[in-house]
Design goal:
Elements (H helix, E strand, L loop, with lengths): L1 H12 L3 H18 L5 H14 L12 H7 L5 H13 L3 H12 L8 H21 L4 H29 L5 H12 L4 H9 L5 H11 L4 H14 L6 H16 L8 H14 L8 H8 L4 H14 L7 H23 L12 H16 L6 H18 L1
Helix pairs in contact: 1-2, 4-5, 5-6, 6-7, 7-8, 8-9, 8-10, 8-11, 10-11, 11-12, 12-14, 13-15, 14-15, 14-16, 16-17, 17-19, 18-19
């Protein structure tokens, strides 16, 4: 009653600054005396009243051993738990703050939106990192806890992406049920794959899940990439659209050998190019992978292996000739870009000796083949070799 009386007096003081300051000082003295009590029940009532009459963060300004107990005591509320983790941070206990935030992110007690759960997980990771940086003796246990948090945050970000994708789909009762489930609780990676990525055949999300979970299954990855390629076969500009999608995914996943494996992609893309050689731009498959962040030298190496492999359909002379044409086009474009003034590629990055030897080898192989278009390839190779020997 005394506190309420003083608080009412401060309000009634209005513009009388001197009176307001006197009342405020008296109010604070009463708080200081009240905090000396050893009765937790009294403290609980006091904190409830203070939270209802002032900004709830005011409790963090109080020096009392009962604050932590009060914030952990039933009945729980979102406001109290948020104050609890801030209390731990304020008192230098970032590990307890991280644990509190992690529990809050996964809580089913409050109706939290998905983005809020991610926010709590991110804060938990930050606080756990802060603690691990200064931990003594318990580093291994804290490190395991941090790793677990980071993995959960990665999975939660996958969940958020799937949620965003489904939100953009046409409205239906099934979609709305899925969104409700996705937005109400954090799910594990297996649930996300089974109930959403696989159920709705979200190809890019499948790759993301393979990448996030480090799930190595070449057969599954090949099947997903083949579906992505097939998706654009009837597109009015299939190679432009497909190439853009592959490169975009490459820029996202590279250097992941799980989601963006160059051995699988080089074969799938070049096979696709062979099937549509009449309309496919020369060097398309190699260019797409280079634009997806694979180094040019690595792309060249894998396509050279493919040419030499004899694996169907590359056992056919016409197919070998076509891939040689693609490789030649790719080398010519790469070399021109390296030699262009202001190029983003340093001249020293071009493996001149290696490419020169490869060109010589290709020119020799052409002498034993009498396939149409040989002269075009031979001319290109001659130009490449001349530039290399004159400029390097």
């Amino acid at each position: 009653d005394a506190l309420k009386g003083y608080e009412d007096g401060v309000k009634e003081a209005g513009t009388n600054t001197e009176l307001a300051e006197e009342l405020d000082a008296a109010y604070n003295r009463i708080i200081d005396v009240a905090l000396l009590s050893q009765d937790f029940v009294f403290h609980s009532y006091l904190y409830d009243w203070l939270s209802s009459t002032r900004d709830h963060t005011y409790l963090l300004e109080l020096e009392s051993p009962f604050i932590e107990v009060y914030l952990k005591h039933e009945p729980q509320s979102l406001e109290k738990i948020e104050l609890l983790w801030q209390f731990y941070v304020q008192n230098g206990n970032s590990l307890k703050a991280a644990q509190t935030l992690a529990d809050l992110a996964e809580s089913t007690q409050f109706n939290l939106p998905l983005d809020k759960r991610l926010e709590y997980l991110s804060l938990a990771v930050g606080n756990a990192k802060s603690n691990s940086a200064s931990a003594v003796g318990r580093y291994e246990a804290i490190g395991e806890f941090l790793t677990d948090l980071e993995e959960k945050l990665e999975v939660a970000n996958v969940q958020l992406e799937i949620y965003g994708y489904l939100s953009g789909q046409p409205q239906s009762a099934e979609r709305d049920r899925s969104l409700q489930a996705l937005g109400s609780v954090l799910l594990d990676i297996s649930q996300l794959y089974r109930d959403y990525a696989d159920r709705y055949n979200l190809l890019e999300m499948k790759l993301l899940i393979f990448h996030t979970s480090e799930h190595r299954d070449p057969a599954m990855v090949t099947a997903v990439w083949q579906e992505i390629i097939n998706r654009y076969q009837s597109d009015p500009d299939p190679f432009h659209r497909l190439g853009g999608i592959v490169s975009e995914l490459g820029r996202r996943f590279y250097p992941s050998e799980i989601a963006f494996p160059i051995d699988i992609l080089s074969e799938l893309l070049e096979t696709h190019a062979l099937r549509h050689r009449e309309s496919c731009p020369p060097g398309w498959a190699l260019r797409v992978l280079a634009e997806g962040n694979f180094p040019h030298e690595v792309v060249l190496e894998y396509f050279h292996r493919l040419k030499e492999s004899g694996v169907p359909p590359f056992q056919d002379p016409a197919a070998v000739h076509q891939i040689l044409y693609d490789i030649t086009t790719f080398i010519a474009e790469w070399l021109d870009e390296v030699l262009r003034p202001g190029s983003r590629y340093a001249k020293s990055s071009f493996p001149a000796d290696k490419v020169d030897q490869l060109v010589t080898r290709y020119m020799t192989s052409l002498q034993s083949n009498a396939i149409a278009n040989n002269d075009v390839i031979r001319t290109k190779l001659t130009e490449i070799q001349s530039k290399i020997r004159n400029r390097f």
